[in-house]
Amino acid sequence: MPLPRAPHRALLLCVATAALGACSASGSGSADRSPGAAETIRSGSASPSAAADARRSVVTFAGATPLGADAVRRTRDRMRARAKALGLTDVTVEARDGGVAVTGRTADEKRLTELGASGRLGFRPVLAEETAEATRTPQPSPSADPARGRAVTEGLRPRAAGSASASAGSAPAEGGAQDAALQARFAALDCTARERPATEREGAARDSVVACGTAGDGSAARAKFALGPTAVDGAHVTSAEAVPGRQTGGWLVRLRLDSAGARQFSALTASLSMNAPPQNRMAIVLDGAVISAPSVNQRLGDGTADIYGSFTRESAERLAVTLGSGALPAPVTVTGVTRLPR
Question: Could you give the CA distance from residue 334 to residue 227 in angstroms, rounded to a whole number?
């Protein structure tokens, strides 16, 4: 489902989804009554009687640091656009006490919290990778999309590692020399847990970072990565669309880049294609987690990138909406979930 790009954006993948967890219930303050501060998104898919009888929840969000009035307004508008694109019914999004409050059906509570995903996307070169699980099961990827008449994954296809040392044997390096600090952080990182810590955030674009995510060999195994600086920022993504993978029967998310992003992406893939594994891999990083780390064996210069993963239609659409709507102006966290009386 294509989603028009918001006026300001910065690039949604957990992959297969990056979502913020709900905190314990808390009260809420007075609402911002300025014009346009609240809007209820309604859909004809639910009958009025069913909507009236459904239990309601209020999820409140606040910035890690205080948000200014403009940041609150833009955050509210982005979350409102996400709710509408996802087809959430009878959802009210309003500015409240320097943050944002989202009111909707209790049955949709988890999806309401996901509206606060930061949505910051970046493409980084992989310096080193180590799989957290011993067993990997490579998944096939299509070599071409017949309907579009072009190879969509040949240059991005995850390659099955011939041995564990193929991906785990390289130490993090920058400019051909080991970076001791990066090496220490990489060695200390534990990615065996399925849930990311709530405090984990995306590192600065100019810095090399360590991150957890999905292994780059096409499996669903957990892995840890050492990554170089961001080579292509998600702000260059102009659209994101969930589309069926015609060869695998699964779903993928197709991104389109603006002209500057396409040039950067072309340069990145040309450079990576000359490297040996795992340093021929490109990490697609969403909110600090690697959602995909495909290997690159050719320059890709048409300004599109396909993200593969263990996607259902629903999870691919959620990711496309997050990425297509643009990143939030600043990270927010859930500060309370209140279930309203019937």
Answer: 28
